[in-house]
Amino acid sequence: MINASHIEFSMPAPRPANVRRAMLIGWLGPALSAAGLAWVALNAVLDPAPEPATLRYFMFDAPHLMITVGIAVSFLFVPLAVQVALSGADDTDIPDFSENPMPGESQWSSM
User: Fold this and answer.
1) Which of 38, 70, 89, 105 has the highest local Cβ count within 10 Å?
2) End-to-end C-alpha distance for the chain, whole angstroms
């Protein structure tokens, strides 16, 4: 019999820089959708003679496309944002290859 009260999960504590990156990545999709929704609302208020509401209008009108792209970006980038938030320092640091050239390359080969 397994007692669930004794199971421990060890997850690394997220670094503040990773959380900021994750928040920026995660809010990209909702920000696009909000901009598209604001555009639709302004268009509805300011346009005295709107186009007829057809399927083509909703599929190819720019504000509606922004809303759709924002939703798609959310589905794609929210899992990425979670991975960035939980990643360690070794995963997110950009390596510096200037001092250690790749094997077979010399320091002067780029000139």
Assistant:
1) 70
2) 68
Q: Rounded distance, CA 75 to CA 81, Å?
A: 11
Spatial CA neighbour of 87 closest among 8, 10, 12:
12
* pLDDT of the residue at 15: 64
Q: Which two tokens stand for residue 55?
A: 């399927």
User: Which residues neighbour 72 within 8 Å (Cβ) at sequence distance 6 or greater?
Assistant: 29
Residue 78, amino acid: V
Q: Which helix (H) or strand (E) holds 56?
A: helix 55-60
Interacting residues of 64 by C-beta distance below 8 A, sequence separation 6+: 36, 40, 57, 58
Q: How far is the C-alpha of 41 from the C-alpha of 50, rounded, in Å?
A: 12
84: buried, middle or exposed (CB in 10 Å: 19+, 13-18, 0-12)?
Answer: buried
- In this prediction the pTM is 0.59
